[in-house]
Design brief:
Strand content: 15-25%
Largest sheet: 7 strands, mixed
Radius of gyration: 17 Å
Helix content: 25-40%
Strand order of the largest sheet: 1-10-5-12-2-14-15
């Protein structure tokens, strides 16, 4: 039995590494969430594209409205159909492209610097504004039923939306890409080894997406730094991660939890960048 995905959708995801478009939070919720995000930016003193990168990571730990998106039943039901009933959130990131700007995401795989094993992690990318070909929607390369980790180079381009500014340095079939266009309120799913990218936003509006990374509770982290994650469905019988608190009414407590989470996440991420560059992690 599945929650929302059909057998054909699940089979296509397992073969290709992605599935879209999927109904998610709906257009009205997306409109409210965008307003919440822009109010958050005002309080932070600048757009997410202008201020410290940690201001856009793991906001499901800090902000109840972001947590409401990350734990929305429509999204969790689809994720459960793929990875099972015991679900942790590894991280979440707001990806914003301002109109008529050169920001890009180069060809990459999410798994590269996450340090998660096995490779069962999945990302739900929720559109808070329309993600069209003109505004710079994602393009996915079908995995063909045989995904693997490719060699990447960090700090490859200055205007990358990814924290590592990484790109793949091996050959692959770039011509097989599929444009993942979404309307505001819809979402896509992609596998941690699915190669993807996105071009600049040539539209007159911001392209805003919220990427939430989920993993089954049996996932472990291979680095030396203890990592944190949030249990959002089912149970954690493994204890591989320190469990984060869900955000509540005490904003100072939420902020402190966010600092703990972003600090350990960033340290673990940088360790994985170094390991990858040294050739220590290739599977």
């Amino acid at each position: 039995m599945t929650n929302v995905l059909t057998a054909d959708q699940i089979a296509a995801y397992r073969h290709d590494g992605f599935q879209f478009p999927l109904p998610g939070i709906g257009a009205e919720h997306a409109r409210r969430a965008r307003a919440d995000l822009e109010e958050y930016e005002t309080g932070m003193g600048g757009k997410l594209t202008e201020i410290d990168r940690t201001a856009r990571y793991k906001l499901h730990v800090k902000l109840p409205w972001a947590h409401a998106i990350a734990t929305h039943p429509a999204i969790l039901d689809a994720v459960e159909d793929v990875i099972g009933p015991d679900i942790l959130i590894w991280t979440s990131t707001f990806f914003v492209k301002e109109p008529k700007t050169p920001a890009v995401t180069l060809w990459h795989q999410d798994a590269t610097y996450f340090g998660l094993r096995p490779h069962d992690h999945i990302t739900a990318w929720v559109a808070l504004s329309d993600a069209s070909a003109v505004s710079g929607c994602m393009t996915f390369i079908p995995e063909g039923g045989a995904p693997r980790l490719y060699q990447h180079k960090a700090n490859a381009v200055p205007n990358s939306m990814n924290g590592g500014s990484q790109t793949i340095v091996e050959d692959f079939d770039r011509d097989s890409g599929v444009r993942g266009m979404l309307n505001a309120g819809e979402f896509s799913l992609h596998h941690t080894l699915c190669i993807h990218s996105s071009p600049p936003n040539e539209s007159d509006d911001r392209r805003i997406g919220y990427g939430i990374s989920y993993m089954p509770a049996n996932t472990r982290h291979i680095g030396t730094i203890r990592q944190r994650a949030m249990l959002v469905r089912g149970e954690d019988r493994y204890g591989h991660f320190e469990l984060e608190a869900h955000p509540g009414e005490d904003q100072s407590a939420n902020n402190a939890e966010h600092v703990r989470s972003t600090t350990s996440y960033r340290a673990g991420y940088l360790e994985q960048v170094a390991w990858h560059e040294e050739g220590r992690v290739r599977s």
